[in-house]
Write a structure and sequence with these properties.
The complex is a heterodimer. By secondary structure, chain A is an alpha+beta fold. Chain A is built from ten helices and nine strands. The model of chain B has no long low-confidence stretch (mean pLDDT about 90). The chains are: A alpha+beta, B alpha/beta. Bound molecules: flavin-adenine dinucleotide (FAD) (2 copies).
Chain lengths: ~400, ~260
């Protein structure tokens, strides 16, 4: 039986034809290309690179970028639906697309020069170049302003020194969008090429989460790059945060995909699994879990769609995104754990999806602003008082 | 070259089908509709042929179906078809294969054609009749269930294979012809996002029966669906239980002999 996600509120009716078509085509892609291989890749801790070219052909890498740069000028709602479907496959696949689209193509598109846009964007959209985004450092996570990676201007060059950590796609990337402080302490964005002398990207191993995704350190030892590799139109920390807002928005939709996947699995399993002479679906405790999952899914979905519409009308604010990232990812993490339990011992194996999604969501809960940091962003919005800013 | 591909909108293979209360059809609420999967092979073959010819040939989708079929047509356009004809008329509610073939024949004649591809059958009613009736009406050869297709260089004939019990049948046909397509012929492409964006601007020509010069719905009275019935429910299941398994087996044997009278 194929995948049939619950659409409790008939959200289908709120989508237009284009949105439905691209969602369906991505769903089909995930069914055919991701589902058959993902458990194995996850277990082996490898990213299925064969998917990159296929995703590029589908046109889902950086879909919001203008056509002249190789994008499709798709709406933000469409982008969200793509993330939903990809993450239903695996967070690692969605993470790849988020990084390539929101964290690499987006900053080049928004802060790059025309030459940079023409040089990089079409190749990124077509999967000929793979990108990564380096903001986090070993000692600068939730507080990126405390970064120590430095960029020193030397005539027509910049010289980068420092290290980034936890960088998705790092070791397999051809280019890295890297954020570093100049001599005055202003944060600037740079495009580093993997061949640049002094640059290396060793992979971080032994992850128990997001295993079907490459995570790496980026090391800069006197990396000398031409001045025209700086993104000219950035404005300090605000620029990387804008990228994160775009990526977090997609992540909130991705969490909807996870909830859809695990609820679908839970309903099927509980109807078929007989214990005490009855399907476990007939027990009140099971029904309560299913009811809670369906409610969390439907609420997450509606909220994501509303924020998508706000984005398409140009009215989306970073705190809107904080609310759905925080709520939806947390709901997906707890939901996947719940379903893991409902599957009994079967639930601890990769034959089923729940434990894979559950482990993945631990990363998703942490990256792109931890659950706590989004709580504080909402707190700041509601009170006007920042509980985390050190100024 | 004018390449025609036929398309029917059908319920998703995975959809849960329920008969409506009146027994006149299925309940459509909550059912996902898609391009008939076999038709996707036809669309793909049409697109491959166009790409191979690369001479300005066009692929035109022809569909007879309700208003809602536009979504399926749009998907075919997003896969790469150039344009579409959509015959949509209230008089076409609940048509039979003869009716559909007559309507499609008129629409295809109006378009002109050099080759026609379609699926080997529609997965909803499994009738597999339209291609044959259509071949008769257009007076062209038909090859059904094709698993390989190769157009001759002069485009006046084609070589095909069909899978038959225990082997392949090799066929050559003159053109124009109608080819019904089977799994194995090709791997239908995905509708890509750029394809979907482009499809929004492609033309779907809506036609009524009057537009095609059809005054009366053809083929009515030839055959008619009387009623749709759900499958009969399976019989009651009785579980024979006892403290000791041997007693249960003994009881089961007694029931089979005395009540069911099967042993
Ligand atoms: C798999 C994976 C992929 C990643 N990919 C990328 C990438 O591609 N690019 C990139 O730049 N980064 C990436 N990251 C890094 C990610 O963004 C950081 O891990 C995240 O920002 C948290 O930083 P940290 O790990 O240093 O935790 P810390 O900031 O040290 O936080 C530790 C804990 O303290 C809490 N905390 C921190 N400050 C406060 C406060 N003021 N009040 C209350 N609680 C607080 C946090 O919520 C958290 O629970 C990735 C991380 C993972 C796990
Ligand atoms: C790593 C591992 C090691 C193990 N080692 C051993 C071992 O050494 N020896 C051994 O004998 N067994 C062992 N087990 C088996 C373990 O005890 C069973 O997995 C456990 O009893 C649950 O049974 P189940 O997996 O069949 O789940 P099920 O019984 O099918 O339960 C599925 C879900 O339904 C729920 N459920 C079931 N009945 C009801 C009800 N009436 N009302 C509400 N909810 C209900 C359960 O709580 C669960 O969430 C092991 C399991 C694991 C995972």
């Amino acid at each position: 039986m194929a995948y049939q996600p619950l659409d409790f509120y008939n959200i289908e009716e709120l989508l237009n034809e284009e949105e439905i078509l691209i969602r369906d085509t991505t769903r089909k892609f995930v069914d055919k290309e991701v589902m058959p291989i993902i458990a194995e890749e996850w277990e082996a801790a490898t990213f299925p690179k064969s998917l990159i070219q296929k995703m590029a052909e589908l046109g889902i890498l950086g879909p919001f970028v203008p056509a002249k740069y190789g994008g499709s000028e798709a709406s933000y709602t469409t982008y969200g639906l793509i993330c939903q479907e990809l993450e239903r496959g695996d967070s690692g696949v969605r993470s790849f697309a988020s990084v390539q689209g929101s964290l690499v193509m987006y900053p080049i598109w928004k802060f790059g020069s025309e030459e940079q846009k023409m040089e990089y964007l079409p190749k990124l959209a077509s999967g000929k170049l793979i990108g990564c985004f380096g903001l986090t450092e070993p000692d600068a996570g939730s507080d990126p302003r405390s970064m120590i990676t430095r960029a020193h201007k030397d005539g027509n060059h910049w010289i980068l020194n420092g290290a980034k950590m936890w960088i998705t796609n790092g070791s397999m990337a051809d280019i890295a969008v890297v954020w570093a402080k100049d001599d005055e302490g202003r944060i600037r964005g740079f495009v580093v090429h993997k061949e640049d002398k002094g640059f290396s990207a060793p992979e971080q191993k032994h992850k128990v989460s997001l295993r079907a995704s490459v995570t790496s350190e980026l090391v800069f030892e006197d990396v000398r790059i031409p001045a025209d590799r700086e993104l000219p139109n950035t404005s300090d920390l605000k620029s990387p945060l804008m990228c994160l807002t775009s990526a977090r928005y997609g992540i909130a939709w991705g969490a909807v995909g996870v909830l859809q996947a695990v609820l679908d699995e839970a309903i099927r399993y509980s109807q078929e699994r007989i214990m005490f002479g009855k399907p476990i679906a007939s027990f009140q405790l099971t029904q309560q879990k299913l009811a809670e999952l369906a409610t969390d899914l439907s609420n997450s979905q509606l909220a994501a769609l509303r924020v998508g519409r706000l984005a398409d009308e140009g009215k989306m604010k970073h705190y809107h995104v904080s609310m759905i990232k925080r709520h939806n990812v947390n709901a997906a993490l707890l939901g996947a754990r719940k379903v893991r339990g409902m599957l009994g011992a079967n639930g601890i194996t990769l034959e089923y999806q729940a434990i894979r999604h559950m482990c993945n969501m631990e990363s998703v809960q942490t990256y792109e602003g931890t659950f706590e940091i989004h709580t504080l962003i909402l707190g700041e919005h509601l009170t006007g008082i920042s509980a985390f800013s050190n100024t | 070259m004018k390449i025609i591909v036929l398309l029917k909108r059908v319920p998703d293979t995975e959809a849960k089908i329920l008969i409506n209360q009146e027994g006149t059809g299925i309940r459509e609420d909550g059912v996902k509709f898609v391009i008939n999967p076999h038709d996707e092979y036809g669309i793909e073959e049409g697109l491959k042929l166009r790409e191979k010819l690369a001479d300005g040939s066009k692929v035109t989708v022809v569909c007879a179906g309700p208003e809602e079929a536009t979504e399926a047509i749009r998907t075919a356009l997003a896969m790469g078809a150039d344009d579409a004809v959509h015959v949509c008329d209230p008089k076409l509610a609940d048509p039979n294969p003869f009716t559909v073939s007559e309507v499609l024949a008129k629409a295809i004649q109006a378009e002109g054609f050099d080759v026609i591809f379609c699926g080997k059958q529609a997965i909803d009613d499994d009738l597999a009749q339209v291609q044959s009736i259509l071949a008769e009406k257009l007076d062209i050869p038909q090859v059904n269930n094709a698993t390989a297709f190769e157009m001759a260089a002069d485009c006046r004939s084609a070589k095909l294979s069909r899978r038959i019990e225990g082997g392949d049948e090799k066929i050559e046909t003159s053109m124009p012809a109608i080819i019904s397509c089977d799994k194995g012929l090709n791997e239908p492409r995905y509708a890509s996002l750029p394809g979907i964006m482009k499809a929004k601007k492609k033309e779907i020509r809506k036609k009524s029966l009057a537009d095609l010069g059809i005054a009366e719905v053809p083929g009515t009275g030839r055959s008619r669906v009387l009623k749709w019935l759900p499958l009969p429910k399976g019989g009651e299941c009785r579980i024979v239980a006892a403290e000791e398994t041997v007693d249960a087996v003994r009881e089961l044997a007694r029931l089979l002999r005395e009540e069911a009278k099967v042993i």
